Amino acid sequence: MPTIAPPPLRPHDRVAIVCPARQASHAELAAAVTTLESWGLRVTLGASTNVAHHQFGGSDEVRRQDLQHQLDNPSIRAIFCARGGYGTTRIIDGLDFARFAESPKWVAGFSDITTLNCHLLGRGYQSIHGVMPLLFHQEAGQESLESLRRALFGEALAYEVPAHPLNRPGTAVGELVGGNLSILQTLTGTASDVSTDGRVLFLEDIDEYLYAIDRMLVHLDRTGKLAGLAGLVVGHFTNPQDNTVPFGLTPGEIINHYAAKYSFPVAHGFPVGHEPQNMALVVGQQMRLTVDETGARLVGV
């Protein structure tokens, strides 16, 4: 059954910024408010912004109540998660999506917000994996910000990347699923777990040890997450760590070691993840991945 895409945003729509994970002050979100207002949107800063409980944007209950309020409020047409870090899995099981289902809206974020992306996809709703308000000020990321605007306002997304020596050619059509590798591995077996069968999986991560990347790929493979894939898109694996005795493989080589067991196309070097070039992807959207000697293309169908 096809996933449900929330209605595109329109000028004068009201949107909310919340902190389901780490804290973010109003000063840190000022650039995002200015940008969203320049898109013609009206911005509400949720109760979980500008407050702190240790590293979190308020206590678990503050963050849960704020996100629940924005999910339930029919006047809010999109929810932007201010930043990632850690914390969304602590509150996800306390959320009720009944009113959201009556009036679906866009939820946008990445990294720790992969939890929400997957939770919504498992319930049949599309969401956006893209740059978050804390990072809107990055001049180097303006192309990513524009891709987020296009996704929110219902404009077509299409990406093309150069050829990569680790690519495997082929064509795949399927709904997008994925995000942060460590979060995806953590969600396995939970209420936020999501099927990858027949879908195009995209992966990214930051600051992970090479052996840990391998361990997580082993886990995804052993739980069947790779066997039924239509295709695989490999994004940024930023600042990988290593031990005194080297692991001996790059993140891309580790991924290919497990992908080699199957025949789906693989596209490396895709601009998604923890770097300024973090292009928006609509999780749950039907896409065509084409990989050949000229490079890779990801286009909506």
Automatic annotation (TrEMBL):
The answer, when asked if Protease is one of the entry's keywords, is yes
Signal sequence segment: none
In terms of Pfam families, this protein maps to: Peptidase_S66, Peptidase_S66C
Cite the Gene3D superfamilies for this sequence: Class I glutamine amidotransferase-like, LD-carboxypeptidase A C-terminal domain-like
> Which catalytic residues are annotated?
111 (nucleophile), 204 (charge relay system), 274 (charge relay system)
InterPro entries the record matches: Carboxypeptidase_A_C_sf (IPR027461), Class_I_gatase-like (IPR029062), LdcA_N (IPR027478), Peptidase_S66_N (IPR040449), Peptidase_S66C (IPR040921), S66_fam (IPR003507)
Q: Any idea where the LD-carboxypeptidase N-terminal domain is?
A: 15-130
Which CDD domains does the annotation name? Peptidase_S66
Keywords carried by this UniProt record: Carboxypeptidase, Hydrolase, Protease, Serine protease
Query: Can you name one GO molecular function term for this protein?
Result: serine-type peptidase activity
- A GO biological process this protein is involved in? proteolysis
Q: Which SUPFAM superfamilies has this protein been placed in?
A: Class I glutamine amidotransferase-like, LD-carboxypeptidase A C-terminal domain-like
Instruction: Note the superkingdom of the native organism.
Output: Bacteria
Every copy of the LD-carboxypeptidase C-terminal domain together lies at: 174-289
Family membership:
Belongs to the peptidase S66 family.
Instruction: State the PANTHER family in the record.
Output: MURAMOYLTETRAPEPTIDE CARBOXYPEPTIDASE, MUREIN TETRAPEPTIDE CARBOXYPEPTIDASE
What this protein is called in its record is LD-carboxypeptidase
